[in-house]
Amino acid sequence: MTLDALGRRIESSRTQLSDIERGVAKSSARLRHALDDAIGHGRLNRLWDDLTGEGKEAWRYEVAELVDSATAIYEYQIMVFPSHLQTEDYARVLVRYGAPWLSREEEPGRDT
Asked: What positions does the domain DUF5753 occupy (predicted)?
């Protein structure tokens, strides 16, 4: 379906749809619902809700409270350094600094 045909179907313009498609304009809730009715079969609205958390504001406040009351926040990324280049010593250092509450004896891979 062309943008012109879709625009006629949902009472929008080709330019507006093109701008949204290219990421230079935002869509309104009305337009999102119209697009979903026309071509999304309910998937667009579900995806929008999942990605934005729209309608689920409570969890945002819960996360903010947890962050505010935390004594430390750790973020882990599996590709800190490509795994095929990691040495055993490098992995131990990541664990040591990533989990400072572990004693040296509790570190994974440590011979006892």
From this structure: 63-106
